[in-house]
Amino acid sequence: MKPKYHRTKCTVKLQKSAYRNSEYYLLVEAYPVFVENSNEPQRQFTSLNRIITTPVWDKERPTRGGNFKPKRNAEGVIQCRSETDQEACKFAAKFCQLQQADFDNRALYPELYAQKQDADHKADIDFLQYIRELIERRRSTVGTTCHNQWGVLLRMLEAFTEGKTVRFGDLNQQFYDRFREYLLTEPMNSGKALSPNTQKLYLTHFKTVLHTAHKDEILAVDPCHKIKAIKGEESKRVHLTRR
Length: 243
Known about the structure:
Layout: E1 9-16, E2 24-33, E3 42-52, E4 57-62, E5 68-70, H1 83-108, H2 110-123, H3 127-138, H4 144-160, H5 173-185, H6 196-215
Antiparallel strand pairs: 1-2, 2-3, 4-5
Helix pairs in contact: 1-2, 3-4
């Protein structure tokens, strides 16, 4: 079985527009690329969303179709008559270099690359969706009150994030501090801020989510110790005495 990233070469290519004869799309072609569950090499094309109209053709390098290949400088950058097009080709060449380095790293350091891929995948996991799934996972192991409190925490976070998708890669100290401040100051259903004990309760639940994500190996580091605790109020105990 051939290695998946064996001698992959990246090259900037031009693709003629199907709508205008004078326009050419800039693409980066990678070959050979080996994908999962296949030993057959593939060509991978990446569109750069750049169009040029003034490439300089190399009359000494004809193509099989009877046209000519674009002229390139010593660094392999496609040459153009227009300054704007030339800048686009420089951008394409730089992107090509970065993609080439990525393929080279896959081949030279497969274990490190696999770790990076795994880390990138975990960083892309939806944080709020993880909490929804965690609530269901815990349903049979916690009491009804605790289960309901986790549901309230989820709704708080949905309101805090204003319905936006939050990935684990978006979590940082600023996010934690802002949510803590939200618990301290944001008016809730009654129009008033939560009591200190309730603030403390939901911050504890929030930390439990983060700690569980660390145990699930989604977060590489448990951030709970960096989140400042909220001090609750001491409950006043009433003692009954005999008369």
